[in-house]
Sequence to fold (222 residues):
Amino acid sequence: MDKDKLVVPNQIGYLILKDDGAVLESGGDLKNDERSANVIMGLLNLTESIDDNFIANNSCERISIDYEHHSYSICMSNRHIYIVKFSKGQNGATTSSSSSTSVYNDANNELTASSSTVMA
Amino acid sequence: MEQQLEKVLSEILTTPETVGALLANRQGLCLGAKGNINPNVSGIGMAISEQVAKLEPNSTLPATVCLYSGNKRCVIQKDGEITGIIYKQTATATTASTSASN
Fold:
């Protein structure tokens, strides 16, 4: 039941770590992904003190890492680290249809070009 | 070369909510900074971008890292040799709108 609660829209993976970096729970793309857990722990250590004048030490409440098609969100709460991997909405349908029409147009152009050479 | 960097930094500063911008090289040295940002941040910013690059080493496009703290956020992106660090600050602490504006 707890795991059902963890699922949020577009979630494709999650990790829950203890503050020492030990993996408590994991699922989806991040199932048993200790390598990612270690990288993120290294990132958290780096973000502890960036610039005390702008973001006070240890006051960073959330980190997001954005890629083209997915993103990670990292939150700290109650000495636990919650990492969720999200997929981004795919709008590839429109691009694929436009590319298919362009292929279609190219084919038409080739046909007209070949017919004109035949005519010539 | 510096003039081009200065121009880019000035353009970045004209975007809404931006308070400071900085560019760092591969060694973490500051190439240029504009606005309210400490040039010494270049080292830690570069270290963060290098650390994030380890998360998905096969990714072709660089990741954008955003650190949120109240109404402030720090955006870091590494592209090839250069790492960019931008400080942003909203008038009110609305995390939902800040994530949308990214």
Residues 69 and 93 of chain B are 9 Å apart (CA to CA). Confidence is low (pLDDT under 50) at residues 97-101 of chain B.
